[in-house]
Amino acid sequence: MSLAIRFFDPIKEVERLPWELLLDADPNRDLVTAYLKQSLVLVAFDSENPDKLLGVLVFQERLKEWEILNVAVAPACQNQGIGKRLLQACLREITKRQDQKQILIKTGDLTSPALTLYQKMGFKQIAFIKDYFVENYPEPIYEEGEQLRNQVILAYNPLSTCS
Fold first, then answer.
1. φ and ψ of 9, to 5 deg
2. CA proximity to 123, closest of 87, 93, 148
């Protein structure tokens, strides 16, 4: 497989949105729909089969920071470096804009493979919000059979080197 990454326009390519991937990372479709309209989207795909999306990353510029809102890799393609490549492409894009704003990722505290990746990429935990997913999502979210309750907020300083 030859992995390629490109920008994806969620407005012009709305019929091709990778909903299965997006909702795997964030099961609140209304929330995802709302933030997609103001976000940049990167997709990963096999260059020999560009119609099959293997991963997605959604990020957005805010007044004081950037936020990575959604990162997902197809289950069959996990642990192959696709998430890392998407994160690297995102960090490069933000750096290209010569933007020195902090970059945030908010995730569940049970997502250990994701947390490990984010920390290896230079993200540092800056906050912990107890019961965030219980209080802000209408349906319980389970990861590996355990209910997701707490949110971890990590930050990356773009002045440091990308991994």
1. -90, 105
2. 87
Residue 120, SS3 per DSSP? helix
Which positions ≥6 away from 89 have C-beta within 8 Å?
5, 42, 57
Tell whether the torsion through CA atoms of 137, 63, 13 and 56 is positive or negative: negative
> In one letter, which amino acid is 105?
I
Which residue reads 């493979």 in tokens? 113
Alpha-carbon span 145 to 104, nearest angstrom: 27
pLDDT of residue 97: 84
pTM of the model: 0.91
Beta bridge partners of 65: 102
Structural tokens at position 145: 């059979």
Alpha helices, H only, the chain: 19-25, 29-36, 82-96, 112-120, 132-136
- Give the span between the Cα atoms of 100 and 75, in whole angstroms: 33
Between CA 153 and CA 90 the distance in angstroms is 18
Low-confidence winner among 9-18, 66-75, 110-119, 154-163 (lowest mean pLDDT): 154-163
SS (H, E, C) 74-105: CHHHCCCCHHHHHHHHHHHHHHHCCCCCEEEE
